[in-house]
Known about the structure:
Elements: H1 3-26, H2 31-47, H3 52-74, H4 80-93, H5 97-122, H6 124-130, H7 137-140, H8 147-157, H9 162-171
Amino acid sequence: xxxxxxxxxxxxxxxxxxxxxxxxxxxxxxxxxxxxxxxxxxxxxxxxxxxxxxxxxxxxxxxxxxxxxxxxxxxxxxxxxxxxxxxxxxxxxxxxxxxxxxxxxxxxxxxxxxxxxxxxxxxxxxxxxxxxxxxxxxxxxxxxxxxxxxxxxxxxxxxxxxxxxxxxxxxx
Length: 172
């Protein structure tokens, strides 16, 4: 296996896992995770055989997702870390059906996550009395750790992403 294929298999999922766990336990997503995702894409895509126009389309889709995320952030509906992570992740999917698949998964998991956390918050006293190991910020923060939903959506949609398809083609 070449280094490029290994990077494709590891970087995106690892960054999403780090972001999801960080958001769960600290209610923040480190900026470096989104920066690594974006920078890695820019370095990996040409080595994976993407043309300049294809890379441009991926970056353009990132900008479109960023515009939507920025609007939601300005309306105080989405956190800044979530917006940056979703934007950087969208670049890895580009302008095709895998991006739509990714966004649908993120929306679904985001809805389920929101319902679960709201139910959890209603049972805070019971959970604390039982001594269950639940991160305290899930009770005290007035936000939802949407990085978890982005991570789960990314894990499910990533196998059909253009970079993963390119990596799998190289292995055949």
